[in-house]
Amino acid sequence: MSTNLSEQEILRRESLQQLRALGINPYPAEAFNVTAFAQDILDNFNANADTYQNVVLAGRIMTRRIMGSASFAELQDSTGRIQIYLKRDDICPGEDKTMYNTVFKKLLDIGDYIGVKGYAFITQTGEISVHVSELFVLSKSIKPLPVVKREEDGTIHDGFTDPEMRYRQRYVDLTVNPEFKQIFVNRSKVINTMRDYFNKQGWMEVETPILQPVHGGAAARPFKTHHNTLDMELFLRIANELYLKRLIVAGFDGVYEFGKMFRNEGMDRTHNPEFTSMEIYVAYKDYIWMMQMVENCLEEVTRAVHGIPVVQVGNNEINFAGPYERLSMYESIQKYTGIDVSAMDEDGLLKTCKDLGIETDATMGKGKLIDEIFGAKVEANLIQPTYITDYPIEMTPLAKKHRSKDGLVERFELFVNGKEIANAYSELNDPIDQRERFEEQLKLAGRGDEEAMAMDEDFLRALEYGMPPTSGLGIGIDRLVMLLTNQHTIQEVLFFPQMRPEKKAKVATVDDFINIGVPAEWVQVLNKMGFNTVEELKAANPNKVFNDLGGMRKKLKLDITMPAKEVVMSWF
């Protein structure tokens, strides 16, 4: 057996073998038909109405109190925890008491999945519980869960709180911190409410390619891959916009997609390289119509999560009921800096950035410079839902030119609590204008802009066949869920956020321990105590290690000489 296993892991593996020796399959294949859930019983049990008198539950053992021939335990299922009461003679009515005396008391552990049959009742202390008549082993846990103790007043001891561990081992996080499950329940409500809203309007949910020969639809750096059979370079999509517009060309009045996007860019508390976006395109509409649609939709989504259109985000109370404030891009910069950049050329914008202490580089064109000023000086001020409208044409290659303002396009972004969560256009459907915009993007790419869009000849061909006036919208689902669940990092709303490679635990050799004076026959004992490196041993309490060595010698019935205390002290 591996010397890297802790004492607990070794004991659980031994219990696993003992269960099999008793003829009990610790991982049975048969279905276990559950008829009730913990929270339903706790919410609805009525002792006077004989409810829940024949129930079947399943879940993890989370606590145990063994008291001779009777015991209490807590069972945790997908809805919550409920106390169960086990009496030896009830679950073992015959002469054979193995299921209670051996299986439950000695071979089952915290974290094991069990199934129980029984009936609900109220204990003498007034707690709704389930009296167990039959017990079934459903899955043996061979790695112990973190021990998280919760007091009745809500105080938590030894919480599983390290963010890296929580995000990396989400399966453990949601087991010992079940309160975080509500974030993901609400995430599902957000998506399902939006889907229902769109479906009621008659718009159709579709799917578009994730692997694309041309990265387009947004300004972002793509991930690249290679298709072996076709021997061609492909990109993970940075947006699904251009494919959805092809479907508008094909004659659909409204199409939308919830999907994963991939952008090979930085990671921080609001950015994950893989994220979920919703994009929708509706024919014969414009960006002004889209603003009203977004207000209606987000108010409905917020009510679905909270019952009201108001949500608390940190110290801010955000109201998603419209109407939302509207500011043009130039107006917002002037409002928060006092500077009018509307008539500035690239040199003037570079000087303004320098005066404001904003870093620039040679790849930035006029649009990027304006965006940098906006990001640095405006965004953080936009707490209540605010539409920023009418962007410079250089910033938006896929939006239609403004109907009355030269040099601008019909675009808005929705900002809430200082972050952009939605982006919409009156879509550009002039194929000649679109080609010229792509050509400008190619020039920026030639200057080193890795986020510039590529030329998409097939999309241009589609536009040449004719696309009706259309409004399009993209909403970042992860950021929206952050807002509606009052979370401050994107990792909290993703089941499995992107992480750096996990550092392998260093394992010392036997010689490493021998070199500090540990007798060779005691190295494996130290490993079983959880000391896999000399550094881990030296960080421990010497007196406790000495005492634990004696305990392990007795427990494992080792016929080796116990090292003297001064010898053990010398290891430190």
Automatic annotation (TrEMBL):
Positions bound to Mg(2+) 2: 420
Principal location listed in the UniProt entry: cytoplasm
Co-factor note (free text): Binds 3 Mg(2+) ions per subunit.
One cellular component term from this protein's GO annotations in UniProt: cytosol
One of the record's GO molecular function terms: tRNA binding
Localization: Cytoplasm
Binding site for Mg(2+) 1: 413, 420
Superkingdom, natural source: Bacteria
Catalytic activity: tRNA(Lys) + L-lysine + ATP = L-lysyl-tRNA(Lys) + AMP + diphosphate
Record GO biological process: lysyl-tRNA aminoacylation
UniProt keyword Disulfide bond, yes or no: no
EC number of this enzyme: 6.1.1.6
Record domain Aminoacyl-transfer RNA synthetases class-II family profile: where: 187-501
Keyword Nucleotide-binding among record annotations: yes
Family: Belongs to the class-II aminoacyl-tRNA synthetase family.
NCBIfam families per record: lysS_bact, PRK00484.1
Assembly notes: Homodimer.
Protein name: Lysine--tRNA ligase
Species of provenance: Mucilaginibacter ginsenosidivorans
